[in-house]
Write a structure and sequence with these properties.
By secondary structure, the protein is mainly alpha-helical. It has a single domain, classed as Fumarate Reductase Cytochrome B subunit (Up-down Bundle), CATH 1.20.950. The chain contains 5 helices and 2 strands; from the N terminus they run αααββαα. β1 and β2 form a beta hairpin. α1 runs antiparallel to α2. 21% of the residues are buried. The structure holds protoporphyrin IX containing FE (HEM). Protoporphyrin IX containing FE (HEM) binds next to α1, α2, α3 and α4.
Length: 206
């Protein structure tokens, strides 16, 4: 039996993909601001740290479900007239976002493990360490957590800018593929003009 090939018969992301996208978008934004709050406030730090750990692990679990769904259900093709560099930027940034959705929680979990801190989810429930107790490993992972968070911030902002560019400037039907479960053909007179149905080698697939 062969692996599932590109599916060009649909024009929007499936329901699990859309639910995971918007839920995780909100969770990741909350996490970024909770992280900043944690390191810049002493008074609210304990509450925020208690929120940060389980929410981060929830993002890791949802990222697993999302990757599984993404591999089983390839996304709709990008418009065929999208400049090649923009299609490349879309593919690269989407895979970078996937990588960061895994890396951020794993680095956070790993750094607490290396620092010999308990990775408490909620009262009485802790995760096992995933890294050896080592101050050097802790220092490396602690720094990585900050830099990866900055990279995630920047990538999320670029992703948002690109989504709005598709929605408001190009109006090419890309935004509704994630915003609604509606076919591109139904979202505007010219919206479906460039979908390369049935030509996977020409479609700008993520
Ligand atoms: C998508 C997941 C995550 C995001 C977006 C995220 C984001 C952040 C950000 C922005 C900071 C502030 C960084 C700084 O200013 O240096 C931070 C700090 C921190 N994160 Fe995460 N994080 C995630 C997952 C986790 C997980 C799963 C854990 C642990 C289980 C964790 C533990 C920590 C700790 C302990 C700090 C503060 C360390 C300190 O104050 O010294 N993070 N995180």
């Amino acid at each position: 039996m062969s692996a599932p090939g590109p599916d060009t018969t649909h024009a929007h992301f499936n329901l699990p993909a859309r639910l995971l996208h918007w839920t995780m978008a909100a969770m990741i934004l909350v996490m970024l601001f909770v992280g900043i709050g944690m390191v810049s406030s002493i008074s609210v730090r304990p509450v925020l740290v208690d929120l940060h750990r389980p929410l981060g692990i929830a993002i890791l679990l949802l990222a697993c479900a999302r990757l599984f769904n993404r591999l089983r259900h390839p996304p709709p093709a990008l418009p065929a007239d999208l400049p090649r560099w923009q299609a490349f930027a879309a593919h690269a940034s989407h895979w970078l976002l996937y990588a960061l959705m895994f890396a951020m929680p794993l680095v956070g979990w790993g750094m607490l493990s290396a620092g010999a801190y308990p990775v408490v989810m909620w009262s009485g429930v802790s995760l096992p360490p995933i890294a050896p107790h080592d101050p050097v490993v802790y220092a490396v992972l602690r720094t990585a957590h900050t830099w990866l968070a900055l990279l995630l911030f920047a990538t999320v902002l670029m992703h948002l800018a690109a989504a709005l560019y598709h929605a408001w400037v190009r109006r090419d039907g890309v935004f509704p593929t994630m915003a609604r479960g509606e076919d591109r053909a139904a979202s505007g007179p010219d919206a479906s003009r460039d979908i390369v149905a049935g030509k996977p080698e020409l479609s700008n697939r993520v």
